[in-house]
Amino acid sequence: MSPGPQFRPHRVVVLALDGLLPFEMGIPHRIFGRPRDAGGRQLYEVVTCSVRPPGPVETDADFSLHVPNGPEALATADTVIVPSSYELGPVYEHGVLTDELAAALARIRPGTRLASICTGVYVLAAAGHLDGRPATTHWAEADRFQRMFPRVEVNAEVLFIDDGDVLTSAGVAAGIDLCLHIVRRDHGTAVANEVARRTVVPPHRDGGQAQFIDRPVPDPQLATTTAARAWALGRLHEPIQLRDMAGQESMSVRTFTRRFREEVGVSPGQWLTQQRVERARHLLESTDLSIDQIAQNAGFGTAQSMRQHLQTALGVTPTAYRRTFRTTRT
Description:
Blueprint: E1 10-15, H1 22-32, E2 44-49, E3 55-58, E4 64-67, E5 79-82, H2 90-94, H3 99-105, E6 113-117, H4 121-126, E7 134-135, H5 142-148, E8 153-154, E9 160-162, E10 166-169, H6 174-187, H7 189-199, H8 226-233, H9 242-248, H10 253-264, H11 268-286, H12 291-297, H13 303-314, H14 318-328
Parallel strand pairs: 1-2, 1-5, 5-6, 6-10, 7-8
Antiparallel strand pairs: 3-4, 9-10
């Protein structure tokens, strides 16, 4: 999405439905309202619309929002985001669109990127956009959502899923993770990190929804794995063994692995790979180091190993990733 001579910001249209959560409605405006190119031009334009003519839309709070655009705005979108609502009616109860909502969604141009936050996924599924595709939603809704839409491949363990032109996220704050991911995908890690800094949120959260599911609270006197993670982050360029991480917390490997998964939501090995991929992305974007040097610095050892991990995580080779995101900011 490199700005060219006929530069036009990428238009994000947020669909406001009755019963919406004001917090979720604000996420796209906050995240996409920040990124700018080297010339100071906004990279995104964020527009809010409803399924009716301009006017009030009820929220789940004690106030309504005045939405300035009707459904015709959906026809102008490059990306459409559907936040959650507590008043989805037939969409939530029976998995079918109302005539009003169906007519609004029919305005979306083919090829438009679609995204949902939390139970907004019901709208995408009812419209048929998720048949045979992976998707996620709030962990508390996952079983019900799967029963209602058996053709969707539901994964309740992740914060968001990127399936190319359709993206879905878990509950509430996972919408921040999703929107930051979209910025990262469009314009690279440096731009997304700057947005995260200004929003005072982490640019990338470790783990998935498992860390938020209610479970017995561990004894506060027991050690955590925080020190081990900090220790590992300072040594990503070195071989790191599980027993070395466990040793930082004076735990057995078995206890450390269990505690780590409880706190972070993934295994230590998965977490290390995630951190190394992020290190490699940063170096590919911000340095002129060779692929071999970056592989060493990120702890992959060889360029072939790094290539395999980036291909799995990002769907592109290191060279292609660097070409895309170094070009974006020149």
